[in-house]
Amino acid sequence: MGISAPDFAYVRGLVRQRSAIDLQPGKEYLVESRLISVARAAGADDLSSLVSRIRAGDERLQEAVVDAMTTNETSWFRDVHPFDAFTSQLLPEIATTSQSKEIVVWSAGCSTGQEAYSLAMLLLDWLPAHPGFGARIIGTDISRSVIERAQRARYSQLEVNRGLRAPQLVAHFDQVGRDWVLREQVRRLCRFQQGNLVEPLLGLPMCDVVFLRNVLIYFDLDTKRAVLANVRTVLRPGGFLVLGGAESTLNLDAVFERLELGRAVVFRHTGGTR
Ligand SMILES: C[S@@+](CC[C@H](N)C(=O)[O-])C[C@H]1O[C@@H](n2cnc3c(N)ncnc32)[C@H](O)[C@@H]1O
């Protein structure tokens, strides 16, 4: 099932408009391979009839296409160093500066929830030694299907094998059939909602820390700037932005100050506006 040049251009425009994900020419193969399952599920004979239905304004199919074009790769405690810095450096500093006594963390582009739940496990260890403090983690993602998976908190053996240590598995999961279901003690710290990082972030509280990892890579320069400006509106001055290993605010947003904390790099919101 190949995709014609006009259909590729149409899908590229749709995905860009809805998610800001930039599918450069050359990504035709990726689009074809991802859309085949959407076409099958929709009962379309081939990609061209799928795209005709999308062009005709089938809203549900349009969302399915955008969803299928997101890359949801994630794992528990991914790249580990930011999580070490979170416990050893960020939490102690936030605890001394927090006025609300509630640690608020946003996992932006949270995929199926592993990042948010990894943070929740760390907070669950931290809270008993800090009486009077509470914590909540908000996970958001543009893809409805990954948000539903995060809310279900049910993971396969393959998924729990990626980054969880045996004691963490035993402490926080119940085995149900061949899957592992996260216990309420971790889940209750987290809530998940669908949201587009390029649009105004309605309903998010002010955050102490934003994990925005491995998401900016899908955007062009102007969109990266717009997303960072958006993130700033909900990150309190003095709060921390954590990006993916290959990402930086350099040349994108001068309001952030780069800090090296052990083997992790984080960006502090200096409180400026530009
Ligand atoms: C590669 S995953 C990263 C998951 C996690 N942050 C990590 O590092 O393990 C990127 C996520 O960003 C989401 N995403 C892409 N564009 C988005 C947008 N415009 N708004 C919100 N989420 C978006 C995708 O759906 C995907 O789940």
Describe the structure.
The protein has 274 residues and is α/β, with parallel strands linked by helices. It has two domains: 5-68, Chemotaxis Receptor Methyltransferase Cher, domain 1; 81-269, Rossmann fold (3-Layer(aba) Sandwich). The protein is built from eleven helices and ten strands. It has helices spanning 5-19, 28-42, 47-55, 59-68, 81-97, 114-126, 144-152, 157-160, 166-172, 184-187, 221-232; strands at residues 102-108, 134-141, 154-155, 173-176, 179-182, 190-194, 207-212, 235-243, 256-261, 264-269. The chain has a seven-stranded mixed β-sheet with strand order 6-2-1-7-8-10-9. Strand 7 (207-212), helix 11 (221-232) and strand 8 (235-243) form a beta-alpha-beta unit. Helix 2 crosses helix 4 (59-68). 39% of the residues are buried. The structure holds S-adenosylmethionine. S-adenosylmethionine (SAM) is lined by residues 19-21, 70-74, 78, 109-111, 115, 141-143, 146, 196-198, 213-215, 218, 244.
Topology, pairings included?
Blueprint: H1 5-19, H2 28-42, H3 47-55, H4 59-68, H5 81-97, E1 102-108, H6 114-126, E2 134-141, H7 144-152, E3 154-155, H8 157-160, H9 166-172, E4 173-176, E5 179-182, H10 184-187, E6 190-194, E7 207-212, H11 221-232, E8 235-243, E9 256-261, E10 264-269
Parallel strand pairs: 1-2, 1-7, 2-6, 7-8
Antiparallel strand pairs: 3-5, 4-5, 8-10, 9-10
The structure holds S-adenosylmethionine.
Strand order of the largest sheet: 6-2-1-7-8-10-9
Question: How many domains in all?
Answer: 2
Do you know the CATH topology of the largest domain? Rossmann fold
- In N-to-C order, the SSE pattern is HHHHHEHEHEHHEEHEEHEEE
How would the global form be characterised? globular
Please name the CATH architecture of the largest domain. 3-Layer(aba) Sandwich
Q: From the alpha carbons, calculate the radius of gyration and give it in angstroms.
A: 20 Å
Could you name the ranges where pLDDT drops below 50 across 5 or more consecutive residues? none
Summing up helix and strand content along with how strands pair, one would put the structural category as alpha/beta
What gap, in angstroms, lies between the N and C termini? Answer: 48 Å
Q: What is the name of the CATH superfamily of the largest domain?
A: Vaccinia Virus protein VP39
Counting DSSP H or I runs of 4 or more residues, the number of helices is 11
Fraction of residues in helices?
40-55%
Bound molecules: S-adenosylmethionine
Mean pLDDT: 95
Reported for the largest beta sheet, the result is: 7 strands, mixed
